[in-house]
Amino acid sequence: MSFVFVGVGFLAFVAATTLAIDVGMFMTARSQAQTAADAGALAGATALVFDDYDDRSAGGPAVQSAVNTALFNEVISSSVAVGPADVLFPLGPGGVSNRVRVNVFRTSGRDNPVPTLIGPVFGVPTVDIRATATAEASPANAMTCVKPFTIPDRWTENTNPPWDTDDSYERYDNKLKVIPMADEYHEPGTAGYKGYNSGTDKGLPLMIRAGIGNNIEPTMYYSWKMPGDDIGADFYRDNIVHCNMSVVGYKYLMTQEPGNMNGPTMQGIDDLIAQDPDAYWDDVANKVHSTKNPSPRIFPIPLYDPEFYAWGKANGRNADLRMANWIGFFVERRDGNNVFGRITPILGVIDKNAGPAPAGMFPQAIRLVE
Questions:
Q1: Tell me: the pLDDT tens digits for 196-233?
Q2: Best exposed site among 3, 160, 210, 262 by fewest CB in 10 Å?
């Protein structure tokens, strides 16, 4: 009788142990399936930002990136079942179509359920695992890795329309009066905002050069003192070559860097290009071609508010630089004191300590919301 009791107990122990292994495997499978869904949703939202925001077709970059990325993440050594029909584009808050939802499956209905170990003894040979995730591409209200030079945001050109890179922002006379047919600048999120757009301006060539006097021209940059305890040309150049991780938000007040920083700017640009010398702008694909992801030659340039600066200049304050937005910039080459590149989409961040990002912000923040 003792042997019988021991045998029965041993069988029960083995069954419980195997069942525990099954349960652990199911939890692992669920976690891996969620990882696949999360990765797919993030990839789809990223493709909206960098490839084509309006293409939500089955063969478009958003759907294909979501599907391929989800398939790359296996669940218990097998691929999940996910296809174009499993990628959805639900509306975000306010009815904005900026979300990507991905559903992944390892189920009997998709002919790929997860097999069990002890389950067949209880009539459960397989179990179904599924997961869903939603990612969002929303306007960013802050940025990191910005460079220590800034150009003006685009404005409404009334004195000599249409706006082009040879224009100057002209609004006030020497008596602080608004001139006839004055240029206008409207902040992001307000009616009439005409700033740079990551979709329509993608691939736009842009040349920047050191500013002269107090002129406000699209191609002229001013140097500014970035966050940090250090000062001087070496610190300035180092912030061009490397990433300053300080988070700078919308409407951040920039202090103009004293002295001539043209030399350190050019040296920093040369060092930046040398980090990825073979990168180039692909005119056919309209994007950067690089073996690095991302290329260090892509970086955010802060845009200052031209109206805020012009009003300060009219009142005798020559260094009122207030951050209004950012653009992504791929530096192609340098010729003397001129830096040539292309405007490209770029990712920003959400600063929870700052206010909501206004509509029209150039950088987008990618994040999981469900």
A1: 999 899 999 999 998 777 789 999 999 998 887 677 88
A2: 3
